[in-house]
Design a protein that fits this description.
membrane; mainly alpha; DUF475; transmembrane; about 350 residues; transmembrane helix
């Protein structure tokens, strides 16, 4: 019998610590160059720190869902996601995505959008704020499909909140039930909006739903194509695309909400980029330590957090909800699911030993 050794948990965060040090130094430098005062420098340094903490708190569930998908992927594709994927997450979602929104909303070129971000941060922030409604509707619908697909699964036999999950598993045989639920909730929320906003909300939510379905279909097609050449290949390019879109949906709320703390695109990119590195580190640790197998309800907590986040994104099209509340709510759910898992392990030591053997 071979003994599998794992790194100490703190060692998984080595690169995250390095990026944190570099990011905070860049934030301080940016603060000094833009304000020329110690107080201004400390203010921007503090904002970068808060943004990083906010991103980490919002992304606990993201890391758990990533780990859940990664454990089905081949080592090659795991490595690709944890290298290329983090580059796309940091630079694509935290820098390119906000620029792309302004490019589309203001009908200007990418260079002009970058200049606008640097020279007129107030106008840049206003355009981003105006684009919040369709972004929240799109991301909310996509994440709602992610959460519902986990619970509406007839093969799911481990239930945390049994009276909810048993019913969901029972009705999972009804074809398209997740789509029906998302469409019903979308129409209900659209009635709370007025005029053109209602139509924009419905259209964006439908695009989010279609994006989920297309990613699922495309992922299945791509992975099936790979299996024709290698039967052992599982969770390749299709799973990679799924995780990238999932990460983007998680990032929508954080990127838009970050403009409430700072209107400087580069300060936001540094703060959220630091947080994204911790998400990567947590994902690797969860996969290599087999944490999801050791704590049976941890995934449940993450997917409940996703469902709540999706509803919050819908609600935010009508009322403002501070991102701190969103992050703490998700972290609290995951904490309760972890506590429930630990209690179950204490009461059932033999099944745990078999799962971790």
């Amino acid at each position: 019998m071979t003994t599998v050794t794992h790194k100490a948990p703190i060692r998984y965060f080595t690169w995250a610590f390095i990026v944190t040090a570099i990011g905070l130094a860049l934030g301080a430098l940016l603060g000094w160059q833009s304000t020329g005062t110690v107080s201004g420098t400390l203010s921007i340094f503090f904002i970068v720190t808060v943004l990083a903490v906010l991103e980490i708190s919002l992304s606990f569930d993201n890391a758990i869902v990533n780990a859940n998908k990664l454990k089905t992927m081949t080592p090659v594709w795991q490595h690709r996601f944890l290298t290329w994927g983090i580059i796309i997450a940091v630079f694509g979602m935290r820098i390119v995505f906000p620029l792309l929104i302004v490019v589309i909303a203001a009908n200007i070129g990418p260079i002009d959008a970058l200049v606008l971000a640097a020279s007129q941060p107030e106008e840049y922030a206003r355009i981003m704020h105006d684009a919040h409604l369709p972004i929240a509707a799109f991301g909310g619908a996509f994440l709602m499909m992610v959460g519902l697909s986990y619970f509406f699964d007839h093969e799911k036999d481990v239930h945390w909140v049994a009276w909810i999950e048993e019913q969901a598993s029972r009705y999972s045989s009804i074809r398209g039930i997740e789509v029906a639920v998302v469409l019903s909730i979308t129409l209900a929320f659209s009635r709370l909006l007025e005029g053109p906003e209602a139509q924009v909300f419905v259209n964006a939510a439908i695009y989010g739903l279609l994006t989920f379905l297309l990613v699922e279909v495309l992922g299945g097609f791509l992975d099936a194509s790979q299996q024709t050449t290698d039967v052992a290949v599982k969770g390749g390019l299709g799973a990679f695309l799924y995780l990238e879109v999932l990460d983007a949906s998680f990032s929508f709320d954080g990127v838009i909400g970050a403009f409430a703390l700072s209107q400087n695109l580069f300060v936001i990119a540094i703060g959220l980029g630091i947080g994204a590195m911790y998400v990567r580190s947590m994902t690797i640790m969860l996969v290599e330590h087999g944490t999801l197998a050791q704590y049976r309800y941890l995934e449940h907590g993450a997917f409940y957090a996703i469902l709540i986040l999706s509803v919050i994104m819908f609600v935010q099209t009508i009322y403002h909800i501070p991102e701190v509340i969103t992050g703490l709510g998700g972290a609290a759910l995951i904490g309760v699911s972890l506590w429930s898992s630990i209690r179950w392990n204490r009461n059932n030591p033999e099944p745990l030993a078999e799962a971790t053997a």
